[in-house]
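Researcher: Re-running this chain for the archive, since the previous output was lost when a drive failed. Same request as before.
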Amino acid sequence: MSHTKQNTYFISDIHLGLPNHEKSLEREKLLVKLLNELKEYAKTIYFVGDIFDFWWEYKYVSPSGYVRFLGKIAELTDSGIEIIFFTGNHDVWMKSYLPKELGIRLFNKELKAEINGKKFFIAHGDGLGKGDKGYKLLKIAFTSKFLQWCYSRLHPNFSFWLASLWSQTRRKKEKFYDFKGEKKEILVQFAKDTLKTEHFDYFIFGHRHFPVMLNIKKSKYANIGDWLINFTFLKFDGTELKQYSYKNGDIEPHKTDINAKYILDVF
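Model: Regenerated structure tokens:
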């Protein structure tokens, strides 16, 4: 990896807290180790959603744990590295606590950004594109201020237990993370439709957990991957976007097999 302080990195779908404290802590320590390596080269790091498997902020209460990761983020922002978080479908309820305490920037929708003269469309990806009407209705409920107010009336012990139960039950139903093909991938089609009216050099998404990079006309489409199976991230050095894996604790180029099927065995 090039020795420059101008690199931009993209990481998503870490799902800290899943499936239990012990396994989550293993991934958290590995993530902190990676961030220690990247801090020498990073200008900006984007965390593109679902960093936490569940995050809910009461007025005076926030989730316990993740102190190694949160401390590292504070260290990076204090050193001048720009840290940008996106909310995902699992941690959509992030509000003011992390920006205030850690100095991050927080986005709850897509971001159009220019990086070294290149146009980027960056989003977690949930709810974008055509189809998936069931989830879109669920997202309306998730983002309803009234329903959020109602949920906040629950005691944290119960509300966090309920959210954890829902998340793990849902996850067990998703045994395979596979690439469905360009015509069936909603976010690929969304990128193609977007290009009909506006050009972007790069589309960066999380959410799908499957790491893949595709050429779409004169643009490049990338799903970052996840930190449950693939441990992948993206690096943009100002000229080229590349995908890497940190699964074995070393930064290695990642090559995706689009015919692969992955069984989520963390349970």
